[in-house]
Amino acid sequence: MTGSAFAFIITGVMLNACAQLLLKAGTNVLGVITLTRSNWFETFWRMGTQGYFVVGVACYVVSLVVWIMGLSRVPVSIAYPMLSLGYVINAVAAHYLFGEAVTATRWIGIGFIVLGVWLVARS
Prior knowledge:
- With 123 residues, the protein is an all-alpha fold.
- The chain contains six helices and no strands.
- α1 (3-30) runs antiparallel to α3 (51-71).
- It is globular, with a radius of gyration of 17 Å.
- It starts with a helix and ends with a helix.
């Protein structure tokens, strides 16, 4: 994988992870979201006017464009496993940003993910 291809893939992963964190921050502001026939318009309006949601969706859009650019340079069998790094990024960030617990079992799982991504990237 070339340096520029890696840059596109890792940027796409980072933007995707940021989008997840921003959407979670938005749900922390809005609370539990439940859609019903009577509240769907109001609920989507609240989400669409909530800053974290708007920026999170924007990150998703940009990550999609960057990801497509990366896929044009790297086989999908190598690129797609790189998305797993988002689990690592989000687990660590959620711990520090939202106070979520990262147990020893999760750390072991994260270690397996990192090892797997490393093996795939080297192939």
